[in-house]
Design brief:
Strand content: 15-25%
Order of helices and strands: EHEEHEHHEHHEHEEHE
CATH architecture of the largest domain: 3-Layer(aba) Sandwich
Number of domains: 2
Strand order of the largest sheet: 3-2-1-4-5
Largest sheet: 5 strands, parallel
Structural class: alpha/beta
Radius of gyration: 19 Å
Helix content: 25-40%
Distance between the termini: 10 Å
Number of strands: 9
C-alpha cells in the first residue's frame, strides 16, 4: 500500500512487562514497526512501561515514554504530543484495551487521532464475547454453544444447562487470563469470579467444552483494502 500522507506522527503502545519466555513477539513486532515507520518518514511516539525491551532502547523512537500503561497517562501523552494516529495492535491485549477505552470515551475523536492497523469496531468484535458470537453467527460459522454472564450466579445457571465441563472465557483478556476449564460448580464459582474480575467489562462467556477435539489454528493477514 502507498504511504499515507494524512498522518505524520504515530503513537505506538507497547505491551508493558511480560513474562520471561512469553509474548516476546510484541517487543519484536513493535521494534520492527518503529524501524519501518521511521524509515518512511513518520515521527514515532512510543509508550511502554517496560524499560527492559529492545523497543525502548534509545534511538528506536523519536520520543519514548516509560510510563504506566493506563488511560489517564495515554490521554496526557496524546494531549502533549498530538499524534495523528495511534497503532495499538503491537502491544497485545494492553494496547488493544487502552485504544478501545480511548475510542469508546470519544477522546481519540476529540483530539483528531486516527486508529491505524485495526479499527475500533474490529477490536470490539474480537474481544467482546457477545459481539464475536454475533459476528460468527452472521457469517454462518458454527461454534460451541455458549452464553455470556456478568455474575457467578448467571454462570452457574448457564453451566447447568450446558452440562459440565464448561470453559470460562473472560472478555478483553490476553491468552486466557482469568479463564479456564471447570468440571463442577465449585470450580466454576472460583474461575467465574476470577474471570469477571479480570475482564475489562466484567463479562465472561460460559462455553460448551470440546475437550478431546482436534484443534487446527489458522491465521490470516489482510490490508485496509481487504487484499
Amino acid at each position: 500500500m502507498p504511504k499515507r500522507d494524512d498522518i505524520a506522527k504515530v503513537m505506538i503502545i507497547g505491551s508493558g512487562p511480560i513474562i520471561i519466555g512469553q509474548a516476546c513477539e510484541f517487543d519484536y513486532s513493535g521494534t520492527q514497526a518503529c524501524k519501518a515507520l521511521r524509515k518512511l518518514g513518520y515521527k514515532i511516539v512510543l509508550v511502554n512501561s517496560n524499560p527492559a525491551t529492545i523497543m525502548t532502547d534509545p534511538g528506536m523512537a523519536d520520543v519514548t515514554y516509560l510510563e504506566p500503561l493506563t488511560v489517564d497517562y495515554m490521554q496526557k501523552i496524546i494531549e502533549k504530543e498530538k499524534p495523528d494516529a495511534i497503532l495499538p495492535n503491537l502491544g497485545g491485549q494492553t494496547g488493544l484495551n487502552l485504544t478501545a477505552e480511548l475510542s469508546r470515551s470519544g477522546f481519540l475523536q476529540q483530539h483528531g487521532v486516527k486508529i491505524i492497523g485495526v479499527q475500533a469496531d474490529a477490536i470490539e468484535r474480537g474481544e467482546d464475547r457477545i459481539a464475536f458470537k454475533k459476528t460468527m453467527d452472521q457469517l454462518g460459522i458454527e461454534m460451541p454453544e455458549s452464553e455470556p454472564a456478568y455474575s457467578v450466579e448467571e454462570a452457574e445457571t448457564i453451566a447447568s444447562k450446558l452440562g459440565y465441563p464448561v470453559v470460562i472465557r473472560p472478555a478483553y483478556t490476553m491468552g486466557g487470563t482469568g479463564g479456564g476449564l471447570v468440571y463442577n460448580v465449585e470450580e466454576l464459582r472460583i474461575v467465574a469470579s476470577r474471570g469477571i474480575s479480570a475482564s475489562l467489562i466484567g463479562q465472561i462467556l460460559v462455553e460448551e467444552s470440546v475437550l478431546g477435539w482436534e484443534e487446527l489454528e489458522l491465521e490470516v493477514v489482510r490490508d485496509a483494502k481487504n487484499q
